[in-house]
């Protein structure tokens, strides 16, 4: 008897596979494995003491409200802090424009459910963030992939979609994207917003990494180009700590009202205690100084990874040079498959994430996502040396196979 017939799961759930990367991470995060797989922030950067003090202060001074149910929209002082930050970045924002969420992942889920019915089309960068694809699949939506290059989603290709049914949503990670580390160029940001707004299509701009810029100049947030149809997500996961599960949505009133209703049905509101702990922390904590340390740590780790890749990767390998975030995206030499690299590397206790699950369109070339955030520079140097050996061996094998094949076909052509 199949599971489907024994348990009457919904069509939505039956049609959605568990995340391939989450399964890989279970192996990768074993203690004896040197992992570049998970997108985990560095735990030594969590401001644990300051959070402990803020938590003690909240529980001493306002235990009744901190442990009570709260309003769905979120804790007012926290909404004010987030709004002031947008305003400081040139996007005038009121506290009322903000809805506090359980991480940006909840923002993706709410927006997906607000806009996507069965069969609706959602434009995504190819490759894109896997858990967003999962949220869209749970709405039975159809991802419409648009290729990306070093400047992010290729906006020139959007015109090709015009002949088909209009999409219901565009999803992008504009800055230091997961999995590629690439950023959408300023002119493409403008072009993307123009294209979508001219067609009345909302854009979900997911920005968990934008604050972790360690090189180059800041790019304008998508919401700077349109405040009605651009829905912007943010989070404290990569700047403070992901375990707090606090993020936000900035959206125009009609959209925000729908999202608030959906959130009521989903979880009533975000943890009152965690919201108040962060709000209290931000009253006294030097957040900008802390961000400076976060950026400096990741800058050094990215530098170590780039150097190690230069030293150990064979000819035919290429990789991105992000100006922030946590990820480098590596393109493998021709004929080398990402799953083979994953398996050979894990046998030598080094973990990486194969790139194929991030693509909607299957690719002829193999890729790996490498996270530099959560290992020391020394670990990055030694782990990438092993990875380089693995890729070199597989590249040599692929080349031998290729030579044998072309030799055989040359012989079969011989008169
Ligand atoms: C692109 C992207 N969006 C959303 C998330 C989820 O973040 P949060 O912890 O805020 O839910 C992640 C986490 O890695 C991510 O990479």
List the helices and strands and how they pair.
Blueprint: H1 3-6, H2 11-14, H3 20-28, E1 34-35, H4 48-61, H5 63-66, H6 76-88, E2 98-101, H7 103-115, E3 121-126, H8 130-138, E4 142-149, E5 152-153, E6 169-172, H9 186-198, E7 203-206, E8 230-235, E9 247-250, H10 253-267, H11 272-284, H12 287-312, E10 318-319, E11 327-331, H13 338-347, E12 350-351, E13 353-354, E14 367-371, H14 377-413
Parallel strand pairs: 1-12, 3-4, 3-6, 6-7, 7-8
Antiparallel strand pairs: 2-9, 4-5, 8-9, 10-11, 11-14, 13-14
Bound molecules: pyridoxal-5'-phosphate.
Residues 39, 103-105, 129, 173, 178, 206, 208, 235, 237, 242, 247 line the site of pyridoxal-5'-phosphate.
Quick take:
The protein has 415 residues and is of the alpha/beta class.
Can you walk me through this structure?
The protein has 415 residues and is an alpha/beta fold. It is 44% helix and 13% strand. It has helices at residues 3-6, 11-14, 20-28, 48-61, 63-66, 76-88, 103-115, 130-138, 186-198, 253-267, 272-284, 287-312, 338-347, 377-413; strands spanning 34-35, 98-101, 121-126, 142-149, 152-153, 169-172, 203-206, 230-235, 247-250, 318-319, 327-331, 350-351, 353-354, 367-371. It has an eight-stranded mixed beta sheet with strand order 2-9-8-7-6-3-4-5, with helices on both faces. Helix 4 crosses helix 11. The chain is globular. The structure holds pyridoxal-5'-phosphate. Pyridoxal-5'-phosphate binds at residues 39, 103-105, 129, 173, 178, 206, 208, 235, 237, 242, 247.
């Amino acid at each position: 008897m199949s599971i489907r017939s024994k348990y009457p799961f919904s069509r939505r759930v039956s049609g959605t596979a568990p995340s391939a990367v989450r399964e890989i991470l279970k192996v990768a995060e074993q203690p004896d494995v040197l992992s570049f797989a998970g997108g985990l922030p560095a735990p030594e950067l969590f401001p644990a003491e300051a959070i402990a003090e803020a938590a003690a202060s909240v529980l001493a001074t306002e235990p009744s409200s901190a442990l009570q149910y709260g309003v769905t929209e979120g804790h007012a002082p926290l909404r004010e802090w987030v709004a002031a930050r947008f305003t400081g970045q040139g996007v005038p924002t009121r506290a009322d424009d903000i809805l506090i969420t359980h991480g940006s992942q909840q923002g993706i889920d709410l927006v997906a459910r607000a806009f996507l019915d069965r069969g609706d089309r959602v434009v995504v960068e190819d490759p894109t963030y896997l858990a967003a694809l999962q949220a869209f699949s749970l709405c039975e939506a159809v991802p419409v992939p648009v290729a990306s290059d070093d400047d992010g989603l290729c906006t020139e290709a959007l015109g090709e979609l015009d002949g088909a049914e209009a999409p219901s949503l565009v999803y992008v990670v504009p800055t230091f994207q997961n999995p590629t580390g690439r950023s959408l160029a300023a002119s493409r940001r403008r072009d993307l917003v123009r294209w979508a707004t001219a067609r009345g299509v909302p854009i979900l701009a997911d920005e968990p990494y934008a604050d972790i810029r360690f090189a180059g100049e800041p790019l304008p947030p998508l919401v700077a180009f349109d405040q009605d149809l651009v829905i912007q997500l943010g989070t404290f996961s990569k700047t403070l700590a992901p375990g707090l599960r606090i993020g936000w949505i900035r959206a125009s009133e009609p959209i925000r009202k729908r999202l608030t209703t959906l959130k009521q049905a989903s979880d009533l509101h975000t943890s009152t205690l965690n919201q108040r702990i962060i709000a209290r922390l931000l009253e006294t904590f030097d957040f900008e100084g802390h961000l400076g340390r976060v950026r400096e740590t990741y800058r050094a780790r990215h530098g170590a990874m780039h150097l190690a890749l230069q030293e150990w990767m064979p000819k035919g390998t290429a990789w991105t040079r992000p100006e922030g975030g946590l990820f480098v995206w590596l393109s493998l030499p021709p004929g080398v498959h990402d799953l083979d690299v994953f398996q050979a590397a894990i046998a030598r206790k080094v973990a990486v994430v194969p790139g194929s699950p991030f693509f909607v369109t299957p690719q002829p070339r193999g890729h790996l996502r490498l996270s530099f955030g959560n290992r020391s520079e020394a670990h990055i140097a030694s782990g990438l040396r092993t990875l380089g050996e693995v890729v070199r061996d597989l590249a040599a094998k692929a080349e031998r196979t290729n030579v044998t094949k072309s030799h055989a076909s040359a012989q079969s052509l011989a008169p």
